[in-house]
Each structure stands twice: as C-alpha cells, then as structure tokens.
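step 3/5: co-fold with pyridoxal-5'-phosphate
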Amino acid sequence: INLTVGQPNFPIPNLIKKAAIKAINNNLNSYVQTTGIKELKDAVSNKLLKKNKIKAKPEDIIITSAVSGGLSIALDALIDPNDEVIIFDPFFVAYLQVIRLKNGKPIVVKTNPDYTINYEDLNSKISKKTKAIIINSPNNPTGKVYSEKELRKLAQIAKKNKITIISDEIYEDFVYDSEHFSVGSIYNNTISLFGFSKSHSMTGWRVGYMTGPKEIIQECVKSQQFNFVCSPTPFQYAAVEALKIDMSKYIKDFKKKRDFVYSELKDYYEIIKPEGAFYMFIKSPYNTDEFIQDCIKNKLLVVPGKTFSKKNTHFRISFSNEMDVLKRGVEVLKELSNKN
Ligand code: PLP
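step 4/5: write tokens
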C-alpha cells in the first residue's frame, strides 16, 4: 500500500498525448528559443491574466523545465554565495537542497500549528542577507492553502525589506474549499512558478513556466540557456493543448478522496484538514521512526516528517491513489493508531 506517491494517479488526457505525438511526427523536435515557443507563451500570458490576475507579457515569461527548472534558474538569478533564502517548515524537500547547491543559506522559519505563517519568527529571521522567501501554496506536504490576507501580509513584509518572493504554485488547481490566490498579482517583486506536472499529470514531460520582474527574468534566461537550453519542444506544443482542457472532473475526484481519508482518520490522528494539493501531514501517534517501521511491517509506505521538517513528529500520506488502496491504507493506519 504505497501512500508516498507525489504525482497524480490519472493518466495524461488523450488530447494532450495526441498533441505531443503530432508535434513529434511533424518533426517539431529540435531546440527552440530558450524562453519557449511563442504559441505557449501567448497561451500562458492569457492564462496568467485570467486565472492568476498576473499581468505578464509573453516576453516576460519563460517556459521552464518544469517547476524544478524554474526554481533552479530563479535562485541562480537571485543569490550570491552565502545569501539567505527563507523557507517555511514544513517545506518541500528540494528547496533546502537546491538553495544549498547554489551556495545559498536556507533559513527555516516556523509555521503555527495550523501551518499559518509565524510572522514573529519570520520577522526575527530576516537579515541584510535575505534575498528571497519561498512560499508554496497549496502546500506540499501539509495541503495548506494560504489565504489572500496572509499572502498580502507576507508581501508587505517582503516589500518593507526589499525581498523577492518566489511563489511555487504547482498545485494551484488542487484547491478544494476556497479560491487559489497568487501573490504575484499584488506584489511585483514576485517570481511565480507554475507547471504541468501535477495539473495535467505531465511529470515526465518537464514543462513549466515562470514570470516575474523583467530584470530578474532576463538573468534567469541566461541560466536557462546554459543549463537546460529549452524545455522539451514537442511537450511544449502539448502544453498549449493542455491549457485548453477542463480538468475539473479530476479535481472533484481528488476532493472526494481527501474527504474520505480525512473523515476516516480524523478521530484517530491529529490532522489539520488539507485544503489543497493531495497530501496530509499527520502527527505520528508515537515515535515517528518506530511508527514508520510498523507501517512497513504492515506493507504500508508513508513518508517520514523529517523529509520535510527539522522535526520528526509527523508523517505524510498522499491521497493520489485508487480508492481500494486508500481504503486498505486507512485500515492499517487506524490499527496502528491504537498501538500505544
Ligand atoms: N514544487 C513542489 C511543491 C513539488 O511538490 C514538486 C514535485 O513534487 C515540485 C515543485 C517539482 O515539480 P516539477 O515536476 O514541476 O519539477
């Protein structure tokens, strides 16, 4: 019973697959402009305005090698050795490692027990060396969706301290109870990162996009040129098709799964109900390492909290799974909760 899965469990819709195959057969397989094909940048510019209320001209958009690629070139543009980048605990594990890879210093800021931003800790950790704050909403691993109010407050703090916000919005479509809000719509000094990996299940195709202040984007282009050259060409054509497709039925299905798992486990575990993404970050009923071992003994795989946090008090499950797997997973978890 594998509840560690970090990608959607639905296949790429056929129309998108067909668009990729068509591009390949039409010999659209060569290098393209580093910043991406015009068709996709135009479509992304429209999408950003409509869905995210971000005004970005096609020339201020880069089609990236998914969000990982976007994050990497954003940090290349923003930080010099020993510059500090703030991340919130719990965090997506790559943030910590990529900041280190770029010779930056990750500064970990606490969140409150409900995963809202702890502004006191944030303010105390901002220094002259702070270049960026990474925020991820909806969040991996907690499923937290940051409200407009919280993001406005974060933007105020960033503005006061002249800090760039890097907003990772890869799960923007997976929002179940509210509306997704993009901080880039109210704070110009934001690098907004988006992608097709989760929204369209295109994890292996490596297509994403970013926008932000012109002078930063220009520097990101240089890094993209010398690192990735371009995002895979035929899949950029497929992404144009992806933006036309209504994915809401998949989101509805994920909401059902969220509701099922949460209602089954809420009386057995301490869980903050996730409002987005497809994860739950659950308090371990006893020592997390022992608990993980007990899960394995019961053929259940979950991710230990220390992967995402300085603490090891929680574990992450993914509800991106077939219902029968979720049902079996929930049964094992219920049993283990009673162990102590
Ligand atoms: N950001 C977050 C929060 C993620 O969870 C992931 C993947 O799990 C990524 C970025 C990387 O995604 P991509 O496939 O777009 O590189």
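step 5/5: annotate
Residues 6, 66-68, 92, 136, 140, 168, 170, 195, 197, 203, 208 surround pyridoxal-5'-phosphate (CB under 6 Å).
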